[in-house]
Amino acid sequence: MTLNQLRYFCTASRCHSITKAAEELYVTQPTVSVAIRDLEIEFGINLFSRKGNQLMLTVEGEALYKKAVYILQYCDELQADCSSTLRVRPPVHIGIPPMLSTVFFPELLEAFQAEHPEIPVVLEEYGSVRACNLVQDDTLDFALVNMEQYNIDKFNNIILADDQIVFCVSKDHPLAQKESVTTQEMSKEKLIFFNADSVQNQLLKLRFELDGCTPSIIMKSSQIYTTLQFIKSKKYGCFFYSCMTDKFSGVVGIPLATPIRVKIGVVWKKGKYISNDMQTLLNFTKNYYKKHPLITERDS
Predict the structure, then answer these.
(1) Exposure pattern of 225-240 as b/e (b: 16+ CB <10 Å)?
(2) In terms of residue numbers, what domain contains 121?
(3) Beta bridge partners of 263
(4) Helix (H, G, I), strand (E, B), or coil: what is residue 235?
(5) Is the pLDDT of residue 61 over 70?
(6) What percentage of residues in the chain have a pLDDT greater than 70?
(7) Residue 148's domain is classified under what CATH number?
(8) Average confidence score pLDDT of the chain
(9) What's the pLDDT at 296?
(10) In whole angstroms, what is the distance from residue 195 CA to residue 200 CA?
């Protein structure tokens, strides 16, 4: 028996639905179902019966529910007491790639801290690949990442945006007026790629390889400012997400002739205990981007 199993069971009991419980907990339905089944096997009882589309607690399930609620409340109080005793509230650690940090988190973090000044948040810059590895080994609580990774199913996640990669040049570059650009055209330009732990880097290299082209990479960098200075010299090209281009004056984002679509979201380790502060940040992030979508119809 684990705290997560009890939390999933109590949420399903309160919602009378595994589907609604999964949505509230930001996990998959099978995750909730397996947790409940494991509890039933461990205690040798049936916890639920069905009444129409609703889950109803059995007599045994109701007895466990009352004890589980007490245990979870006690654990939450224990965590709060320990934090109070130490006078240091443990921060929520979030990994974020340099490119995404310019678009996704500045406004959100400012809004979150205005509403929840008592919850400390620490941002740490890593490429999406490295950030996911650090989430897996519990160095980070969450990571904001490009989700086009082979192992993304290992993590729980919330998708925040569906975007595309665009080829960025100075507004005075010879290609700036094109409606789209081919891999062949880009391979003739001097290109700036992001570092090796960037998922975007991997996607672009694969696209060039599939199209039989070799990119002319003159620099790899994780610094947005440095990259922009090269771009504004009118001699170089780079790759950003389409939602970024309006933030940089003098830079034009050209769609790729064969688009590379990407999903951007927050990931966290499956089975990890979610503290109250972490849950508050998750809920705030999801609701914030519903009200302030990164990708508008004009961008997509």
Answers:
(1) eebbebbbeeebbbbb
(2) 92-160+264-291
(3) 162
(4) coil
(5) yes
(6) 94
(7) 3.40.190.10
(8) 88
(9) 52
(10) 9
Q: Say how far apart CA 240 and CA 244 lie, in whole Å.
A: 7
- Same domain for 121 and 146? yes
- Structure letter (DSSP) for residue 218: E
Sorted by sequence, the CB contacts under 8 Å of residue 110 that are 6+ apart come out as none
Same domain, 81 and 141: no
Predicted TM-score (pTM) of this structure: 0.69
Report CA-CA distances (Å) from 223 to 88, 102, 155, 227, 300: 33, 11, 27, 6, 26
For helices 29-43 and 3-15, give the axis angle rounded to 10 degrees. Answer: 110
Mean pLDDT, range 259-273, rounded to an integer: 90
Three-state secondary structure string covering 129-189: HHHHHHHHCCCCCEEEEECCCCCHHHEEEEEEEEEEEEEEEECCCCCCCCCCECHHHHHCC
Q: Please, is 68 exposed, middle or buried when counting C-beta atoms within 10 Å of its C-beta (0-12, 13-18, 19+)?
A: buried
In a domain, 296, yes or no: no
C-beta separation of 279 from 99 below 8 A: no
Same domain? 257 vs 202? yes
Is residue 215 within 8 A of residue 144, CB to CB? The reply is no
Element holding 290 (H helix, E strand): helix 276-291
In terms of domains, do 78 and 125 share one? no
What confidence score (pLDDT) does residue 89 get?
76
Residue 299 lies in a domain: no
* Angle separating helix axes 18-25 and 3-15, nearest 10 degrees: 120
pLDDT of residue 298: 44
How many helices (H) and strands (E) the chain has is answered by 11, 11
The number of domains in the chain is 3
Is the same domain home to 12 and 70? yes
Please tell me the predicted confidence (pLDDT) of residue 85: 57
Written as one string, the DSSP assignment of 94-138 is: EEE-HHHHTTTHHHHHHHHHHH-TTS-EEEEE--HHHHHHHHHTT
Whether residue 61 is contained in a domain is answered as yes
Rg of the chain (C-alpha set): 23
